[in-house]
Q: What sequence folds into this?
């Protein structure tokens, strides 16, 4: 939710450029919180690579309570919880390419706290670069 979620007074929206991730989010909302969700193509705003984005919309008080539970839970510094947080961060705003030599892992996000959390939790050394302001 930290990586690609937004909320308003009616519910929670999660955005991704992967249809598989969108379907996983729907399953997790249903199995973890008993909430029904809908997937929409967000054709008006493609991701930073020009790909179609999908929006998963969950409405109602239950979605806002689930959001609060997820926000209150701090990611663990070690173990499976840390790996799950990093996996979710990658699915939300990450990309992996291989330009020239070696691999290039990138997380694109505007929230400084989120990026610092990812850097802290990662076992690999990560470099932070701020672009466009």
A:
């Amino acid at each position: 939710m930290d990586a690609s979620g937004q909320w308003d007074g009616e519910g929670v929206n999660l955005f991704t450029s992967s249809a598989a991730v969108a379907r996983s989010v729907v399953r997790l909302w249903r199995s973890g919180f008993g909430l029904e969700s809908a997937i929409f193509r967000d054709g008006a705003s493609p991701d930073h690579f020009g790909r179609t984005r999908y929006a998963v919309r969950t409405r109602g008080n239950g979605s806002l309570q689930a959001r609060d539970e997820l926000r209150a839970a701090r990611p663990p510094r070690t173990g499976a919880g840390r790996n799950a947080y990093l996996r979710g961060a990658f699915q939300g705003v990450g990309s992996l390419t291989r330009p020239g030599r070696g691999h290039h892992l990138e997380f694109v996000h505007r929230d400084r706290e989120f990026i610092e959390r990812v850097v802290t939790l990662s076992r690999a050394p990560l470099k932070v670069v701020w672009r466009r302001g």
Notes: Residues 19-33 form the longest helix (15 residues). Residues 7 and 33 are 16 Å apart (CA to CA). The first strand starts at residue 5 and ends at 7.
